[in-house]
Amino acid sequence: MKKVINGKRYDTETAERIGSDSYSSCGDFSYWQEELYRTKRGNWFLAGEGGAMSRYARAIGQNETGGGNAVTPLTQEQALAWLETHASDSDAVEKYFADAIVDA
Q1: Hey, is 91 helix, strand or coil?
Q2: Is-contact 27 54, C-beta < 8 A?
Q3: Strand 64-66 vs strand 16-23: parallel, antiparallel, or unpaired?
Q4: Model pTM?
Q5: FRET label pair with 53: which of 26, 32, 45, 62, CA 20 to 30 Å apart?
């Protein structure tokens, strides 16, 4: 998936995939799937898709929605929060945000 937002190109083919998460399966209207990426210049973004009742839903007619997809730029803080919530292990958090982590 490729998208230009505010003069910056976000491309899943050239960016590094850091993590992913999903809910349900493709046939479910509430289904969603997201992947967190980091560009070569260090910018963060989410590439996601989902069903007609997900955050990726798109209007397809009067009073109708369908599935859709989107690329969403993230700040470093938003990327860290996404990883803390969605990553299955803390390796990526430790690798990319070591300076933001302190011992409890």
Answers
A1: helix
A2: no
A3: unpaired
A4: 0.91
A5: 45
